[in-house]
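Possible race condition, two jobs.
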Amino acid sequence: MITTSQLTFSGAEVKVKRLTRSNMFRIMVWVWGSLCMILAGVVVSQFSKNDVKDVPSDRYELYPACTTLLRSQVNVEMHASLVYMSMAAHFDQNGIARKGFSKLFRKNSEEEREHAQKFIDYLNLRGSKYTEFNIDMPERTSWNNAVEALNEAIVLEKEVYNQLLHIHDIADIHCKDNHLMDFLENEFFKEQVESIDSFIRHASVLGAMGNDNGLAEYLYDQQLQEKNED
């Protein structure tokens, strides 16, 4: 026969066991979570040390890798400027007489030269300097039609843009240079994307009229002249 006291004691024992198992589970979860946090902290700490160990202590100075890329970008911008200058000279010949396209490419030549100067100024601002010009000359001096020149301009602008993005990536991952990233973002990215878009639109409209349609090219050139005069 089971008495009331025995029932009460047994119930209390079961309750204690349940509480003990619950607490043990909570403790195990807490311990496991703590270990994970400690291990994660060690990994992050080690990664941070390895990631920035080669960055100069004087953060005003440009990191050598970024300095090299900026100097190279001066040559990239000057090469683009010379290509557009060559295009402008081609379309301004009296045997071609496409003043509108000539002005379009001359304007882009001036913009690329200004970009090169901005990079030189930035190197000086950060305590570095530009050492020497090593510019690739344009590979051609004539084009069969305006669409061909526009398509080449699109390729060129994309190459320049990709190089700018590469510098930004290196400044972020390797050089840890927020000021350089800000400089690239504010001074170049928006304008570069707009230039690509503009050339694509010119090529699309003119190409739809026919690549070898001299009359269409002439009429479009007239529109460009009026636009450049505004």
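Job #2 (started ~2 s after job #1):
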Amino acid sequence: MDDAELIEDVDELFGGIPDNIRADADALGFFVRALRHDLAIFESYVHPSGDEMLSVPITAICGTDDRAIDLADMQGWNRITSAAFRLRAIQGDHFAPLQRIGEVLEIATWDL
């Protein structure tokens, strides 16, 4: 799939690439490369079998208007850690964490 097709798929599935990224050719190129790496990891990931769990705290952050995943699905992250789990929802779509960096940093600081 070429970059244009990938961007079109992201627009359909996740509500679109944020305008500030789309408007900057360098940022868009970086975003597309990062997205391709994310997809490769997703496609090759094998979940450990059995009762293996992480022993580190997890904070999951999602957008309140995310069309790709809902809060119930995000809550599923609590099943992979024996430590603390926190789910934080911020205003926005799938890319809200990229668009609301200040809020993400506040959450990370608070949860540390």
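The longest helix spans residues 25-44.
Logs attached separately.
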